[in-house]
Amino acid sequence: MKNVIKFKKLAIICLLSLYTGLCLSQNTQADSLIGFNTKEAIYHASFVKTEQEKDKFLKIAQRSFIDQKYSLNKNKSGPSELSLNSNLQGNNCANMDFENSTTNGWQIAGDYQITSGLAVDPFGGFPIVYPGGKHSLKLNNNNISNKSNFSSSASRVISVGKDNNFLNLHFALAVLNFPHTESAAAKFKIQILNSANEVLECPKFDCYYYTDQTGGHAVGTPSFQQTPDPVGINIGNEAFEVSYSPWQTVGIDLTPYTGQSVTVKISCDWCMFNYDWAYCYIDADCSSLNAPKYFSCGILPANLLGPPNMKNYYWIAPNGIDTVSRSISCNASILGVYTLYCTPNLTCEGSQLKYSYSTLPQINAGFVCDNIKGFAPLTVNFTNTSQISTSSGNTSSVWSYGNGTSQNTINYSNTTSATYTAAGTYTTMLLVSKNNCVDTAWQIIEVELPSMIKIPDVFTPNGDGTNDVFFLQTSTLKEINAQIYDRWGNEVFESKSVTGNIAWDGKNLKGNECAAGVYFYKINAMGADDKVYDQKGNICLFR
């Protein structure tokens, strides 16, 4: 009886424990979903076809929300090539633009790909490589099979100094156009982190596309373009249009952090539910806030063009007083230095960039030569005919003759010469420069071998494969006539050629083999260099 009572007590305790555990589990799950947008998740699930798929989507959405809320699975990332705390990059911005075809100097998390070649994005039709470069970086993808990384990022430590305090971040992106709210939309982000890996409030940049009651809205870019048909497929095999933004540039002012190490982090994430994809292409370069001077060399007026994607532009004339333009370009009408002040897209203190543009005289390089084709050794005289719209003072001319020799002259109105001793094709180039303006001219020089005839004095047409043919060695002939006679003066061979290829196999004109002995030849030829040949002599035939 006592054992029965003990068993009942034990059973009650177990049931109470189980009930308590279930309650705690339910409360814990409910707490973890605080902030989860159930209404939007249910709206998203309404696009799914079956109830089973809807239930699956809601579970995935809740799991994704919890993972993001508590930073779970944060170690799921691609290969890392540089620690966030590393300072290997220094001030030279090496491989900032991925031009060495690797991610050296960057830390990559999630799915990525180095892009190259002339291919275009399948949805947006824009180049997969930033124009002017050979490689860029693609973050994330539209892979809907066995997808495990829904967030991708590229981070770069920069020790900010005077030579690298301005960052140009070039990007393009494509987003599956599910009608997400602003909080759930897939996003492209640029963040700046301090040495403690804390995200700084300024500067930062977000770019995404979302939908509300009034329609679709673009953030971070003037507008998204959209495919005309639903060509994008999400994880639930639902088809939607794709919104895309071709390459654009965001200028980031890092001067407030001069003397500090900061981390620039670029990320591209799928939607909040890890269901609808997004990916981006990035490229970057860094430079100095006090940018070097730009030079415009040409006939006035000259169209001066400032850096793209700035908030505002302010051009000052060479007199330092007059404002001549408030747009990205300036129509320069006089020679001198034009000053441009402009403000970057992302700046914390409203600092302005300053650029100097010098309008300089136009240079038209040119020269003439007395021979462009001839026979070695060929001496060619060159006369510099370059034109400069102002005086020729302080003008430098550099000649490269293509034969391994060169010459540098101060006075551009001069005559020079070069000798080409070997046959071949040579490119002669003239580079004329004045005050940072440069122009080039070139000319192809063709040199041929001089004509030549070399006549053997013996041959053995016995069929052993060695010296069986009386063959003339010639070069650069335009006509040749050969006659061969036996010792009685009978002609046994005659041939004419315009190539110089003369060969006698030891047979007479009737095709019979000639007897061993001494034969007499007469050869008349004309070389391409107009050299005349009249050769006579003996040839010995042995068998």
Which descriptors would you attach to this protein?
543 residues, disordered N terminus, mainly beta, elongated, six-stranded antiparallel β-sheet
Summarize the structure.
The chain is 11% helix and 42% strand. The protein has 543 residues and is mainly β.
Explain the overall architecture.
- The chain is mainly beta.
- It is built from 3 helices and 40 strands.
- The longest helix has about 30 residues, at about 1-30.
- It is elongated.
Q: Label the overall shape.
A: elongated
Radius of gyration: 40 Å
Largest sheet: 6 strands, antiparallel
| pLDDT averaged residue by residue | 83
Query: What is the oligomeric state here?
Result: single chain
Number of strands: 40
C-alpha termini separation: 133 Å
